[in-house]
Predict the structure.
Amino acid sequence: MKIPFTKMHGCGNDYIYVNAMQHPIADPQACAIAWSDRHQGIGSDGLVLIDRSTDTEADFSMRIFNADGTEAMMCGNASRCIGKYVYERGLTPRHSPRGEASDRQEAEVRLLTLSGIKTLHLHIIHDIVESVTVDMGIPVFKDDSLFTPSRAKNLPAPLATRRGDGGEALFVSMGNPHYVIFTDDVDQVSETGHILEHHPAFPQRCNIEFAQVLPDGRIRTRVWERGSGVTMACGTGACATAVAACLTQRTGRTSDIVMDGGTLHIEWHEADNHVYMTGPATFVFDGEIEL
């Protein structure tokens, strides 16, 4: 059996997308492992299934499987790509909620994830989704199921900065766990990320961000994603980084997070305490693969 798929990326964070409403996948874990292989498969950071929502409050559902087959709770980059996919592939109405006839339009999609329902605001020019703003919800700083502070005292030495910025680190959950480390050596992600992902302080493993505030106020961030390794970008990681930078008074409530694959704009609204992420989504190619 051949399964149609679409390769998409958000700031270089690339996934394989399958319309599971038409092509259900019985063993997505195995498919994610095989198809994500960059030498013997399609090549990606994982597999995303777009399906009908089991909740009447949402339009669609998303399941996301990392390159190692583990299921993720949420992915900001993937959610933006789904917004573009369902709109431009005609799965959701192509019009502004207010019915305005204009070159610039807005549309809204509500997406069910394992972290709850996320609202996607599509920014459309000439019927093309140019960017998507995702309401990522309220950050969480204490969750015993994701982070055990008493064990964090034994986190390995590479957390310490090598040249300057104090090595401060904070746990932030954006529906999935993140540990944000401020350092002037963001490139230690490759040698340290795997160690930290599997540290006992994180009962369900963890996404790790190495972040440095640049002179112009932007934040350079490199990411080790749980189950995928170093990735070009991470939407929830960008949100966690922006929140951590604000909490440590390194920035205000608005940040541009510069990742390997591009820049995401993050706003942590004071009025509702929600984090809003804005960034692009890009089609790469369509294809078919043997199941």
